Each structure stands twice: as structure tokens, then as C-alpha cells.
Predict the structure.
Amino acid sequence: MSEIDFTTRKWVRPEDLNANGTLFGGSVLKWIDEQATIYAIIQLGNRRVVTKLISEINFVSSAIEGDLIEMGLVATKFGTTSITMRAEVRNMVTKKNILTVDRIVFVSLDKSGVPMPHGYSEIATDRDRIPTEHN
């Protein structure tokens, strides 16, 4: 299995906390979905991607205001129209894992919103697949 590359960092701010004063799960899930969308766009070469599935989310620890967290993703499978990835979030202060998501699936769509074959089977390590159109 490929190594996760922790490329995104977030600072836990007051608006990211729950009633217990710890990191709100909804905040971190929003961050993961945003990062996974960007990753899918780059890997599939298409800005029209949608989240199809997020598997079980395993929360193992938390963070408090002021902590720094980092998130990582790695592609684990390419389907004909989809990409599956794995995500991990960890606390840079305590060094503890915050959560893992074993499967996040995104589907590549055409301009009509229909699943579209993407033609890729390997992880892109450069940015050659970034879509250039803005329509």
C-alpha cells in the first residue's frame, strides 16, 4: 500500500470546536472532503468530480484550540470512472492520529453530469493533469 503524504495543515481555531472544547468532527470532515476533492481533480484531470462514498470514519483522538493538524491522502485504486483513496489526520502537537478513513470514492463526470472514463491507472506525482478549462 502506498505511503500517505501529509500535504495539508490546519490550525484549530475557536470556530472549529465542539461543546466539549475539542475539535468538532464536522469541521475535520469538511476539510478532508475539500482536500480529497482537490486530490481527485488532480489525479483524474477533471474539475467535475463528485464524492460518491466516504466509508467508516474512525475517530481515535482529538485536538484542542491552537493545535496544528495535518491531513494526508493516497490513491488506493483507480476504477474506470472513479478514484478511491485513503485519508489520515494527525495532531502535529501530540503526534497522535485523530482519525482515519479507509475509503473515499470520487467519480469523474462529463459536462452533462454523467460518469466519464478518465483513462488513468497510476498516481500522478506532478501537476500535468490539472484541468486548464474554466467553463
